[in-house]
Amino acid sequence: MKDALHTLYLATTGGTGDVPQPEKQAPGDLADAVNTVLGIAAWAGTAAGVAGVIVTGIMMAVSMKRGEGSEHLSRLGMVLGGCVLVATAGPTVAFLFA
Q: Where are the transmembrane segments (predicted)?
């Protein structure tokens, strides 16, 4: 497929063979804006994880006080799984696409 595309490119450009090589880095202003948005998203994800753990803990405490049996441990597991996902999102993408 790559050879076919290269042959097609050579045919349409007159056979010069000069294949353009785009830059691998985003322009400075765009990179700064994306980093700002990603920083805010990471902060919001971390804050949501902390709030989720606190709310789950409160629900567990209230349930125990009332003598009710409920499945808060599974909720805590989901919240902690989300925290792990938020914490490892950046390194995972860097590993896969770098």
A: 40-64, 76-97
